[in-house]
Specification:
Layout lengths: L5 E4 L5 H10 L4 E6 L3 H13 L4 E5 L5 H14 L5 E4 L15 H29 L3 E6 L3 H4 L6 H21 L4 E8 L6 H4 L5 H5 L11 H12 L10 E4 L4
Parallel strand pairs: 1-2, 1-4, 2-3, 4-5, 5-6, 6-7
Length: 247
């Protein structure tokens, strides 16, 4: 069993997930999942090892229950405990109106961003309850959950609104087990997500709409996540924290 606290990060190969690894490399041992960017996952693992920790990477799609089972087999076999889940894996699709979206797009969006996130959290809760010493789960939502993202990706926005509701409900279920459940709502953040939605320059183009007049960085979001995961936030649960520059 690991003597360090163990953190599972889904979607750890780039963006916010990778930033969490870089900033907390010396604080945890890690299980790091990725879907396609093996090089990014290996770089994250190397950062942990350079800081004296242990990290294991797992190629997995959280929309596949068998892949989720494999993630947790890795957690159990490699470390024998789980203290923190950063439930970060998610997708966005090309910008479109609802009238341009089909069933397959909507199904994939919900399978990854909602059902996958819920099932990953379920297995984390089971382990934290069995350990008996609590834990922290941080779900990654989005400011899109309250902005709606009309004419862009309302399917993504709806999936993140579901995460906010799920966060509150699950926090109430497990607070008595000293398991804290929170969500982070990033705003306009300069990550690869915009390119995946077909707009690689979106953060810079829309920065004027943010009260702080700039886009945020993955590291700024990661610092908020890691605070919520830490003992410094020991009386915080059921909350959703905006990291949006005031938007």
């Amino acid at each position: 069993m690991s003597t360090r606290p163990v953190c599972l990060i889904t979607g750890a190969s780039a963006g916010i997930g990778a930033a969490c690894v870089r900033l907390a490399a010396g604080d945890y041992d890690f299980v790091l999942t990725y879907r396609s960017d093996a090089a990014g996952a290996d770089a994250a693992k190397a950062a942990v090892e350079a800081a004296g920790g242990r990290a294991v990477t797992v190629r997995a799609d959280v929309a596949d229950p068998e892949d989720i089972a494999r993630i947790y087999k890795t957690v159990d076999d490699s470390f024998g405990r789980l203290d923190v889940l950063i439930n970060n894996a998610g997708i966005v699709d090309q910008t479109a109106k609802l009238t341009e979206m089909d069933h397959s797009r909507l199904t994939r969006m919900m399978n990854v961003n909602v059902i996958g996130a819920m099932l990953v959290a379920k297995d984390a809760v089971l382990r934290m309850q069995a350990q008996g010493n609590g834990g922290a789960i941080i779900n990654i939502s989005s400011a899109a959950a309250r902005l709606g993202s009309g004419n862009q990706y309302i399917d993504y926005a709806a999936s993140k609104a579901a995460i906010d509701t799920f966060t509150k409900g699950l926090s109430d279920e497990v607070a008595g087990d000293n398991i804290r459940v929170m969500s982070i709502r990033p705003g306009l953040i300069d990550t690869e997500l915009h390119a995946k939605g077909g707009e690689p320059g979106r953060a810079q183009r829309l920065a004027h709409m943010v009260p702080m007049k700039r886009e945020g960085s993955a590291e700024e979001v990661a610092r908020a996540i890691l605070w919520l995961a830490s003992p410094e936030a020991s009386y915080v649960t059921g909350s959703t924290l905006d990291v949006t520059g005031g938007r």
